[in-house]
Amino acid sequence: MNTAVTFFSRTGNTKKIAQAIAEAACCTAQDIAAFDVQDTVDLLFIGGAIYGGALEPSLAEFIARLNPEKIGRAAVFSTSASKTRYGVAVNLIRNALKDRGIPTADDSFCCRGKFLFMGRKHPNDADLGDAKQFAVSMTGRYSQ
């Protein structure tokens, strides 16, 4: 199975999670700027976060350039400094992918990230371990 891990990370939190997912999926995490949107992948892990309550414009533009015929399925992950905002980025990314006609996994991954004084110890080793488990679950589920 051809798997890719892509991410946008302004603070480094989502990049750490992407690297953990890539390690478990036996591939390399790529910033969205480095990923060739014409590559064909069976499973595309895609991660980001919200900034100012919205999806980062470059991540939205990246998703808009993805070719639905080249992506078998997407698995979404995110980080959030605020516990009350968990899932917001995941839903925004998932909806943007669905609008492009790209099927998404029902499961997603989100964990705390640090920003200023919030979540200063995250992502931690437990978060990275959970991200790896998410990757193993997704690659196992969609390799069949």
List key phrases describing it.
27% strand; five-stranded parallel sheet; 4 helices; Rossmann fold; alpha/beta; 7 strands; 144 residues
Explain this structure.
The chain is an alpha/beta fold and 144 residues long. The chain has one domain (3-142): Rossmann fold. The chain is 36% helix and 27% strand. It contains four helices and seven strands, in the order βαββββαβαβα. The protein has helices at residues 13-25, 57-65, 88-99, 125-142, and strands at 3-7, 29-31, 41-48, 50-51, 54-55, 71-80, 104-112. The strands form two sheets. The chain has a five-stranded parallel beta sheet with strand order 2-1-3-6-7, sandwiched between helices. Helix 1 links the parallel strand 1 and strand 2. Helix 1 packs across helix 4. The longest helix is centred in the last third of the chain and has 18 residues, at 125-142. The protein is globular and about 40 Å long. The termini are close together. 47% of the residues are buried.
Summarize the structure.
This protein has helices at 13-25, 57-65, 88-99, 125-142, and strands at 3-7, 29-31, 41-48, 50-51, 54-55, 71-80, 104-112. It is of the alpha/beta class and 144 residues long.
The oligomeric state is single chain
- Could you give me the name of the CATH homologous superfamily? Flavodoxin domain
Low-confidence stretches at least 5 residues in length (pLDDT < 50)?
A: none
* Elements, N to C (H/E): EHEEEEHEHEH
Q: Which architecture does the CATH hierarchy give at level 2?
A: 3-Layer(aba) Sandwich
What overall geometry do the principal axes of the alpha carbons give?
Answer: globular
Span from first to last CA?
9 Å
Name the average pLDDT.
88
Residue fraction in strands: 25-35%
